[in-house]
Prior knowledge:
By secondary structure, the chain is α/β, with parallel strands linked by helices. It folds into 3 domains: 2-107, ATPase, nucleotide binding domain (Nucleotidyltransferase, domain 5), CATH 3.30.420; 118-208; 213-340, no CATH class. It is 57% helix and 14% strand. It has 14 helices and 7 strands. The protein has helices at residues 35-43, 60-69, 79-86, 94-107, 118-149, 163-171, 175-208, 210-215, 223-233, 245-248, 273-288, 294-307, 309-330, 336-340, and strands at residues 2-8, 13-20, 25-32, 48-55, 74-77, 253-258, 261-267. The strands form 2 sheets. It has a 5-stranded mixed β-sheet with strand order 3-2-1-4-5. A hairpin with a 2-residue loop joins strand 6 (253-258) and strand 7 (261-267). Helix 1 (35-43) packs across helix 2 (60-69) and helix 9 runs antiparallel to helix 11 (273-288). The chain is globular, with a radius of gyration of 25 Å. The mean pLDDT is 93.
Amino acid sequence: MDHYAGIDVSLECSSVCVVDAGGKIVREDKVASEPEPLIAWLQALGVKLVRIGLEAGPLSQWLYAHLQAAGLAVELLETRHVRAALEAMPAKTDRNDARGIAQLIRMGWFRPVHCKSIGAQETRAVLTARKLVQSKLHDIEMSLRGILRGFGLKVGKVTRLQFAARAEELVCGHPTLEVVAKSLLAARAVLLREFKDLERRVRLIARGDARARLLTTAPGVGAVVALTYVAAIDDPARFKSSKRVGPYLGLTPRRYQSGETDISGHITKAGDAEVRAVLYEAAHVILTKPIKGGALKSWGMRIAKRAGPGKAKVALARKLAVVLHRMWSNATPFNFAAAAA
Length: 341
């Protein structure tokens, strides 16, 4: 008889539930969240496991790769889909979650998630670290501005290089503020140095990646946008059509249709939020900066006149996602003449 397993992954221990083809629970247990104990436990069952399900998460991709390498039929499940299916349960526990995942796997009512390659995960790690350091650098600068403003001291408009000197000039003669500014500026200097190192690292990765170099030929697309897109899509062949990239990234409108009611709402925001953010920034650059945007810019400007700049940028971000996928699939740079035609 066929059997199915559901694994609810936690940091230390994972809850595992095995059910048969009729949905009857065969065995449940808590296993350490490490590849070797999980593989050994599953192989020691002595039954045929048709599918094993893991909800997508931080540890799931790591465990998925090892389980797949061991020859087990494992699937990564979309988090939103699993959460919606398990909401009907009156009590949420790791044990119940594992039971629910096992039943979803048995019925086939799940949406598989692509497990990204190690290279894509490494690129994403560098981009995430860069964004985090950039965010904390901005937080320190804004906090120091706010503290000084409370004493009537205004930093004003300064460049990044002038910020420290301007802050030191303002606090001169204020012993308490001098101590505060010294500490914050020291932390800022460390963050600024590390941000520049990560920025250089991102540029080097982009220059060494043929896919990123190809995508940067499109208007508004730089190294960060290209690498974020490449790390998220990972394998363009998993999309049968370039048009499917828009819904995958959550850039298509929600729809509610029931009887005579048919409502088209805001975008779904499913999928990778970071890719949506960088594509929106690229669309903003195309529409607001004097760059060579070609037909993309003209198309976006027409939508802006009809529906407003906000919707135009979202629509242009979706179109840019589709264009980048087609460029990548065909291994051809952006053709401004063809776009105009």
